Amino acid sequence: MSSTATPFPARVELTGEGLVLRDWTEADLAAMPGLFDHPDIAHWTPIVSPFDAAAARARLVRDRELRAEGTAMLLAVTVDGGAPLGEVMLRCAPEGTEIGYAIGPAHRGQGLAARAVRVMAAYAFEQLRVEQVILELEAENTASAAVAAKAGFTLLDVPLIEGEEKGRPYVLQTWGLQSPGSGREPQDPDRRGATPPPLLGINHLTLPTTDLDRLLSYYTQVLGAGFAFERAATATGPRIAALDVGGNDHLMLVGMTAAPRTDLDPLGQAGWGLRVGSLAELEEMRERILAAGHRVDPIVTLPAQWTMTAHDPDGRPVDIRAHRPRTGS
User: Fold this and answer.
1) Taking Cα atoms as reference points, which of 12, 10, 196 lies closest to residue 119?
2) Could you report the per-residue pLDDT of 86-103, keeping only the tens digit for each?
3) Cα–Cα distance between 132 and 99 in angstroms, integer?
4) Among positive and negative, which fits the CA dihedral 16, 20, 21, 23?
5) 27, 84 in Cβ contact below 8 A?
6) Domain boundary, last residue among 126, 161, 178
7) Number of domains in the chain
8) Could you tell me if 100 and 49 lie in one domain?
9) How far apart are CA 140 and CA 137, in angstroms?
10) What's the pTM?
11) Cα(179)–Cα(181) distance, rounded to whole angstroms?
């Protein structure tokens, strides 16, 4: 990119996915604090906080400066070209062509973020002729990770990005989306004959609970799960704790006000389970559970494994099993 040319036109309006992405204008200044002055946006994005009328004016000025420099393009997310519901950004940087977004808290749950990201990615592929666009997200930001996956991005095997902003450290993962014309086949699950990428296992299982601290103690101190990360409750989301149960698998504990269901599955079993390495470890686990004052059923011998059903502090059943060694025929 030359120093005298910018990849971004002075005026832009992109349509698609039921959205109109348009330039920010003076008329949007009054609406911007309602979109961006929010704890989630303050925590997960570099947008200034608190975000007031002065911040809105400064952001509009900075938007125009970045466009003129050819560094970035910020567009308002709308459904009809009218009231802004959020923002989507396209930034040209040495590490790649990056997309970012922020949706106002009153407008979430409509798929706006994923749709806006896909429209902006299409613009980058078709107009800027880039082969890949990226999203840089904190691993703990599960909502944004879900948006990335919904938009068709995959987690890239590249080094983590570490830094500090607003007085707190962060670690970013990089998600990527390839241009359909980059030489790689598009990942289209609806295309007949396409071979999907191999599954690597179950990423996580979500357990709702009315007492997250109690459940966290049970799965870490009694069953031995590792603590991965925790996200405090926000105005738009519950408190979450993620636990590492081995093999890159995780439990996601979610604080809720309604009591979780604790019934058995149609087979009369827990419907999910954890695994240890041997019968001796299973027996040791059972003793630990009993010593901690929790309920656990006797170990049962099956043709291919040993199994027992424990009951966590919420009364939820969880099968714990050990595979029996294979014998030759």
Assistant:
1) 12
2) 999 999 887 789 999 999
3) 11
4) positive
5) no
6) 178
7) 2
8) yes
9) 8
10) 0.56
11) 5
